[in-house]
Amino acid sequence: MYPDDFDVHLIMTSVHDVDDDWLWGRLAQPSFKYKIQEPKHGIEYITAIQDRSICESETPAAASHGHIVWDAAIALADYCQESKLDCKHVLELGAGIGLVGMTLSAMGCPNVVLSDQRYCLPLLEKNIAENFPATHPLPPRTAELQWGDDKASAAFKNVDLIVASDVIYNSSVFPLLYRTLDKIASPSTVVLFCYEVRNADLEAEFFAGLRRHGYTCDEIAFSSSQVEYPEEIHLIRVQKTERHVMA
């Protein structure tokens, strides 16, 4: 599948030197490097470690895909970089490896939390340790967050940006995700969902539900200077309005 000289530490800045099959083939790699265009505190690359074995208590019956950086996460990280988002308190939902949140930290965002279920936290912490030295002034931190848990959600204050990639593939958790957004987001909070279309009806149902609860949902037309994305990737900006109704 891969050329003999394919580097397991695939560097995203080499995108113009490799074809798309190489680039998207990174899913099979144990790690790859993602370029930070305007790094702060000397972090020029994020090394994404993809290691399912680190996810604790993971069983086939409740398998997670959080040990892989999916295409939508790269698209969202690229958007954050190219848009130069001005944010101070960021929460990544369903962070998995935490590429988007770590990218925002490397860009200089002072307060970034990477949240996921408990068994995903060891891999998140390993990725943070790999990329942010002990001398870094404000590394991202991890937090367990089970969607729908009001007590856990209440711990997040003054969040001005929520990011989430490929988290809307299971309709059974939509009410829980709505409730978590209700508890954490304010009308000034920007929420960015990026996803690859897998079930268009289900994804439309998710955003229709947000609109019913009084959120605006606007698609962002975005193209990256680093890579040409598959057409199935969409980026949606969500914001709470005065018409908001609790889930």
From TrEMBL:
One Pfam family from the record: Methyltransf_16
SUPFAM superfamilies, per the entry: S-adenosyl-L-methionine-dependent methyltransferases (SSF53335)
Gene3D superfamilies: Vaccinia Virus protein VP39 (3.40.50.150)
InterPro entries referenced in this protein's UniProt entry, alphabetically: Methyltransf_16, SAM-dependent_MTases_sf
Name assigned to this protein: FAM86 N-terminal domain-containing protein
